[in-house]
Amino acid sequence: MPKSFQQICKQAFITTILSGALLSFPSSSFFITPTKIAKAQEIIRRIEVNGNRRVEAATVRSYLDFNVGGPYDDALVNSSLRALFATGLFADVTISLQGLTVVVSVVENPIINKVAFEGNSELETSLLESEVRLKSRSVYTRARALSDSLRISELYRRQGHFSATVDPQLVELGDSRVNVIFEINEGNATKVKSINFIGNNAFSDSQLRDIISTTQSSWFDYFTSGGIYDPERMKLDKELLRQYYLKNGYADVRILSANAELAPDSSGFFLTFTVDEGALYKFGEVRVDNVLPELRSKSLEGSILTLSGDVYNAGNIDKTVEKLTLATAKQGFAFSRVRPRTDRDPVSRKINLTYVVDEGERIYIERINVIGNGRTKDHIIRREIRLVEGDAYNPLLIERANDRLRKLGFFKSVNVRRSPGSSRDRVVIDFIVVEQPTGELAFGAGYSSAEGIIGDISITERNLMGNGQFLRFKLGGSFNRAQGDLSFTEPRFMDKNISAGFDLFHKEVDLSDEASYKSHSTGTNFRLGFPLTENIWLATHYRLKRDELYDVEDDASIAIKDAEGKQVTSLFGSSISYDIRNHPKNPNRGLYLTLGADFAGIGGDVKYVRMQSEVRAYYPLYDKVTFVGRIIAGHIEGIGDGGVRLLDLFYKGGELIRGFDKAGLGPRDSNSGDALGGTTFWGATAEVRFPLPYLHDAIGMSGAVFADTGSLFGVSSRAENSCLSGNCTILDDESIRASLGASILWNSPLGPLRFDYAIPIKSEMYDDEQKFRFGAATKF
Fold first, then answer.
1. What are phi and psi of 112, to 5 degrees?
2. N or C: which end of the chain has fewer CB within 10 A?
3. Residue 693 burial (CB count, 10 A)
4. What 3-state DSSP class applies to 741?
5. Are 469 and 477 in contact (CB under 8 A)?
6. What is the pairing mode between strands 282-290 and 350-359?
7. Cα(330)–Cα(299) distance, integer angstroms
8. Could you report the per-residue pLDDT of 546-594, keeping only the tens digit for each?
């Protein structure tokens, strides 16, 4: 094409300028070539987009930092490339200059048709689907695939699979569509081989292992997720240990460290918690400092749970603050604030405590939101909050609600978030929960010298259909016992602090060796219970059951033969318990007391009154040496002329006084040797538990020496009448039996084992003795 006059003049002008510039510089100076000058001055005449199929060309151009009519600049090109890649829409982008046209070539990321997982058996597919960001019909990017792989790997790490690998694979489907497959190699779970503690003098390793959530691995972990190492869980364990010490008098406790060391062969972790216990404190002077003139301070004293002279308990301080806050609110002080102030005396090891009551900030709750509860119903959570919209905002009551929700056991975590409301004196509270599985399949196995091999299996759901209810079905037995039961509990009956439930049960017992008969019982039990105070619980129940005594042997006692047959029992009972022990399973300080009474005769075939009571006390004598005392007693009395049936009497042996066989104590037929049961029993035990010398605490073995004494006596009038008519002789007296012995206790990987060797030092000639007893039971 011929050049125009303007183009010829423009080219001559540029040539003249360049020539002058070159002549004005020395030969040793740098120079700009005509080519570079031309490129710097090039003006973009057109922008062309290639390769796009789903994304509009206009959308691509909107991310460019240069426009038609502007200069072509490398810096602008680079920033445009970054912007286009950041959209996640493209797998590749190139920008080139062809003449005065900028060509933007794109390769679009494909659309995901389906996301699948292969090789996952430990984690449900539904869980993995909820965690990954790549979804069906979304745009695939390599970055998101790698990010999702890391998310899945982290899930497996929390399950103890530290060697798990995740490899995302693409399956091309054509038409720019792909399937994404995460190929998972789970590897073996990395278990916790041992849990040890350093610096613990007040509590043994086995006691502290019961407090933390992490458990040691054992052979039955195949059935559960027990014994898996989780770094996040160790943070919780540190707090559990700290809270436990604070509730048991150790106000200065510090959990210095929680370390996990992987075994050289990567077979498991060794966990070590280092504890600085500090001194044991008691409460000194406890008082209330009230700065609200119209508040009646005297009425607050009944809300104080921290009594002078008691062992220091941080948990009771928190509960007292809550009770005082509610008590002041009932007097019309909705914005009152209760703050505990402590004065520690390290010499006397007492902590003086003052509850300061003053006026707090006037803020109202505008709205309470519950977030994250996909399964647990909203009202189940809100009934634990105990605050409603419009109430005065009190940080303490919010924190107590948070604690109650955590203790339900339904959630992995519970967090509270506060945000401003519609005005300055309004606040919005969000309770954010993360749910966790509440179902459990448990197996039990063991051996008892009284029953031989024992075992059980149970299925438990602690949050039935999101209603907060408890349901359990259990089967168990041994060579001479078989039983099954179904149990249901509503912990907040009618939304009150009342526990209600029922049980269905069936039990078959073979007492051929001890009493020459077999029996089975089938029935139901209805329960109702509620707390009277912080440590006192009242429970009532109604039981309806059908019993049968059968397969009576030919040489059985006349009294047993006369009792053969079926009978129905209709029974109402109640019990009250008081518990201030410092440990739920293995206490070394505290007291437990229970007293119960049953009345049978509300219909049915039998009539009697039965009472039982038990007291257990624990007292630390020295470093990890504990004294344990127990007193137990019971009595049953028939109503009317019928007397008490054999099946309702007490049968006692080694569980009451060690050194005696099962049903080895009490009234007996001298001719057949059958145990006939007794109407009255009592027993007392004094035991000292101590660590075994030369054995590390990590082994979990300890020893004990003990002395048992007690008696079982009182023949049923029905048995007496049967023997009088059948000419049999009953051996019965109130003489005291006693034994001395020693024990080895082992918290083994199989569960708690106990070996008792007792020598009866006082017995009757018709008693059955058993010097050695071995028992084991475990849950897995």
1. -80, 125
2. N
3. 6
4. strand
5. no
6. parallel
7. 11
8. 999 887 787 788 878 878 889 999 999 999 999 999 887 788 889 999 9
